[in-house]
Design a protein that fits this description.
Strand content: under 5%
Subcellular location: Cell membrane
InterPro entries: MetI-like (IPR000515), MetI-like_sf (IPR035906)
Low-confidence stretches: none
Main location: membrane
Largest sheet: 2 strands, antiparallel
Number of helices: 12
Helix content: over 70%
Membrane topology: Multi-pass membrane protein
Protein name: Binding-protein-dependent transport systems inner membrane component
CATH class: Mainly Alpha
CATH architecture: Orthogonal Bundle
Order of helices and strands: HEEHHHHHHHHHHH
Number of domains: 1
Length: about 280
Amino acid sequence: MKRLLPAWLWLVPFALVFVAFQLAPLGWIAISAFHVEGAWGLGHFREIAGSTFFRQAIGRSLEISLISSLLGLIIATLACHSLTRTSGPLRRWMIAFTNMTSNFAGVPLAFAFIILMGANGVLTIALQRVGLIDSFSLYSRNGLIVIYTWFQIPLGILLLFPAFEGLRAEWRDAASLLGAGRIAYWRHIGLPILRPALAGTLTILIANAMGAYATVYALVNTSYNLMTIRIANLVSGDLFLQPNLASALALVLVGLLAMVTLIQQWIVRRSHYVVER
């Protein structure tokens, strides 16, 4: 029986959505970023580079994104290693829980952390009473790193778990027969094979953190200077309406993410381990 429609035709709706909601906004941002008071130029980028306020937003966004992504990657790596060593209902329950928590972000996550670790949060008061902490502010740099790290962990597990599943048991057995211990196995076999997956996951986590808006806005509103907060303010006109300047700042964000992606690709190219199926 002949197919009613060619296979490529089913991709047309997805292509239209991609063009309308991805390429078109990106193109508009790229054009308007260079539009300065009826002329074309680099005025907006000079303003960003010369402004301490915008440089602080870029620096804080990079700092929080890098720290939370690295912490999330480390915790996700340890969690994936543990998941591959377990089986049965516990493993299925943990995978299901990870899938659920990966979708728990934005405003609900911010409110949950306010209840748990706010100024009068349950966990904050408990830790203060036992003397583990003197003071902790969820609305500061450290508080944002904690909440960013939390929503990075489930995403990191979902991305890394298939790579850990691909590590064959016979590789560990062969290394053991050759006299290699656990540390030597991970140093010379496990981690080098996982390097592309780790680099790719770190890139996605950084992009996820750099673009986060709903959670941080619900938590600190505009009181903390981050790139996404500043872009939203410039577009909505909370302080002053400058959508073209917002486009330039968004283009800087895209450039930073592109640079991170290039570094990730360089790391992947330096990985010489190829697994034959």
